[in-house]
Amino acid sequence: MIKPVHKKIFYLLLLVCCACAIAYGMFSDAPLSRRPTETEQIDFALKYGSWDFNPHHFMHPPFFSYILFFVYGASFFIGMLLRVFNTLGDFHLFFYTNPLFFYILARITVLVMALCSLILVYKIAKMLFKKEAIAFLSALFLAALPVFIIASHYAAGDLPLLFMSLAAFYFIAKVFLAGATTDYFLAGIFTGLAIATKYNAGILVCGLVYACISSGRPLKKEVKKVLLGLLSVAAGFIIGCPFALLDYRSFSSGLARTFQRSRLDSYNFLSWKADKLGWIYIWTNTFPFAMGALFTFLAAASIIISLLKRDKRINILLAIIIPYILYTGTWTMIKPRYFLHIAPFMCMVSAFVVYGFMNKIVYNRRAFVAAILFLLVIFAPNVYAIMRFDRSIGTEPVYVSAKKWIESNVAIDEKIAVSENVCLMPNENSIDRQMDEIRRKNIGEGVALKDMRNYLWAIGRKYDVYALPLPWMENFDSQDFDFNALRRLGIRYFVIADEFDEYMKNPSRYKLQCDFLGDVKNKGTLLKEFKKIKPQMEPELSGGAYEYVQIYRFAKQ
Predict the structure, then answer these.
(1) How many domains does the chain contain in total?
(2) Residue 77: what pLDDT?
(3) Contact, 535 vs 477, CB < 8 A?
(4) Which of 36, 341, 398, 519 maximizes the CB count within 10 A of its CB?
(5) H helix and E strand count, the chain
(6) Alpha helices in 130-247 (DSSP H)
(7) Smallest Cα–Cα separation from 450: which of 468, 435, 471?
């Protein structure tokens, strides 16, 4: 029997190993993140410093950006006490001169959420199954999932969604076991906050309803509590996303675009679309990448076995897992991170089944050793995948290398047409032109650009930048890719990124972009190319896909 002090060492070792896997490579791509949604969250959090708390953009709900706003606010007040900052303007200036600080602070926030998520998984499994071994296995399984480590590297909404979903489910489980009025209230509030982090968390309502129905308590006595729980879901969502009411038109428009993007064929990135029936794609592509092929098999077998057992403790987990898989199977874009918040429930189901099997063979030494070896075999590929991912993101991204090269070799008076992910700093002319485009296309407020203008004097090298929109952007028009018009404006440098290959995959739909790329590559001189193996964050990127940035130069006209 393992002594309590040894158990604590095992738990601590698990958290330390997980923290190291997440923290590795944290500095490599900051402050030019590989995840555009991370930059979006950080930009929103900083924008709130202007006291406009309306994100004006609701394709991703804003609760995590509000959390970051409070984190940055706390750092500002600490800086004030230490006399690093005297005014809010000093803090804004610090962002433009030291943006790395803000990215690292956001990523540390996510790292803490990741470790707290492991603790929550342990506590939930122990509360439901009353077995410490199942609890530890559940946490161990989650820590060994590639999708968990990958998502924990970035301050996007996926890992905060996982954390908020587990916080909500902790109280949902208490509703199932005890049913105190406070549990109903907190289960609803945290479920609403989880939905305000990412809309995918709406599936937690199924778990809350099942917890009420299957608790065994008379429903007549629980009706008021159930209504309180459901009303608390709405209240929690409004707390986390208040402008769903205050700016209903923008919210409803953003919400509609979010669902349209996942279910219809209007999205611009063909590589992100399922190439087979959604429910098949989930089990053959998404889950094997997110959780490893062998663990996917174990999870599938565990779900089937659990359905046959008809244990209410397991059914409360399945009440979230199965409806969510059935629903997402109708989508055309099915990414691994869309399933991160249900991964802990799949880990708990698998841990329950594995524990039950091992408990039966514990007195058969050979069988028990074989079971341990089986688990090691299952997770060895996952550990390798995590190590490979960490190595790949631990190196400098190509667009960072390209930005540095341009700033060292291209004069600041040059006009540059550049892929948006290279993120050259714009000069005043470029900001004015971007603001005009924002107003013309009605695509936002341009708050970040307005703020940047005030601090241009403190920023290093700036260029007259003409942004070349990436395929997933929905705000480009024919003027953005009019090669001859751009050349007439005196643009000599064109910077192309690998994402533009997506246009080439659909030449009938993107003829203008394909013609533009053809003109750049055939008429210009390839001055410099940065190329490396792309970090594998999505299934379609497996198989050695490259990321590159190409810099073309043209003669003066």
Answers:
(1) 2
(2) 94
(3) no
(4) 341
(5) 25, 5
(6) 132-143, 146-152, 158-177, 181-195, 204-213, 219-240, 243-246
(7) 435
- The Cα–Cα gap between 58 and 241 comes to 9
CA atoms within 13 A on the CB side of 288: 11
Range among 124-133, 158-167, 512-521 with highest mean pLDDT value: 158-167
* One domain, residues 415 and 365: no
557 CB burial (10 A radius; 0-12, 13-18, 19+): exposed
Query: pTM score, two decimals?
Result: 0.92
Domain, as residue range, for 15? 4-393
Give the pLDDT band (50/70/90) at residue 56: confident
| Whether 102 and 194 share a structural domain | yes
pLDDT surpassing 70 at residue 266: no
The single-letter DSSP state of residue 333 is: B
Q: For 145, what's the count of Cα atoms within 13 Å in the CB-facing half-sphere?
A: 35
> Strand pairing partners for 526?
552
Residue 436's contacts (CB-CB under 8 Å, 6 or more residues apart) are: none
Q: pLDDT tens across 177-226, in order?
A: 988 999 999 999 999 999 999 999 999 999 999 998 887 788 777 888 88
Residue at which a domain ends, from 377, 393, 409: 393
